[in-house]
Amino acid sequence: MPHHGRPRRRRAHGRSPAGRLRARALRRGAPGRRRPGGRAVIVVNGRDTDLSPGITLRGVLDSVGAPGRGVAVAVDAEVVPRGEWDVFRVPDGARVEILTAVQGG
Questions:
Q1: Mean pLDDT throughout 8-18?
Q2: C-alpha triplet 71, 19, 84: angle, nearest 5°
Q3: Beta bridge partners of 50
Q4: In a domain, 10, yes or no
Q5: Cβ of 16: how many Cβ atoms within 10 Å?
Q6: So which domain of life are we looking at (predicted)?
Q7: 51 within a domain of the structure (yes/no)
Q8: Residues spanned by the domain of 93
Q9: Count of structural domains, the chain
Q10: Nearest CA to 40 among 18, 30, 72?
């Protein structure tokens, strides 16, 4: 099938969404912003948040008081599966969006 002049995107087969995020963070090469005392700045729902460098996604959720159920989390616009929250390290300068389910109609 012809590509009509558009370059073909390669897909990372066998990688989890979190693995793609880690690979993208490494390619970015930017260490992110740090505050005095070695604190990392991570943007959580649009607000700069001072957190420990190397914090896990579960740690971010606990630090902002996110509910335990009905939550989805995206880091740098990519959803991280719930099963990876305990091991996924949030890179400095990352943008974390915490979304909660709302019932109604």
A1: 53
A2: 35
A3: 41
A4: no
A5: 14
A6: Bacteria
A7: yes
A8: 17-100
A9: 1
A10: 30
Per residue in 65-98, pLDDT tens? 998 889 999 999 999 999 999 999 999 999 999 9
Residue 75 lies in a domain: yes
- Whether residue 61 is contained in a domain is answered as yes
Sign of torsion over alpha carbons 97, 63, 91, 86:
negative
Where does residue 62 fall: left (phi above 0), alpha (psi -120 to 50 degrees), or beta otherwise?
Answer: alpha
- CA distance linking residue 48 with residue 77, whole number of Å: 16
How does pLDDT run across 22-55, given as a tens digit for each residue? 444 444 434 445 455 567 889 999 999 999 989 9
* pLDDT score for 26: 41
- Cβ-contact 93, 50 below 8 angstroms: no
Amino acid identity at 10: R
Contact 63, 51 (CB under 8 A): yes
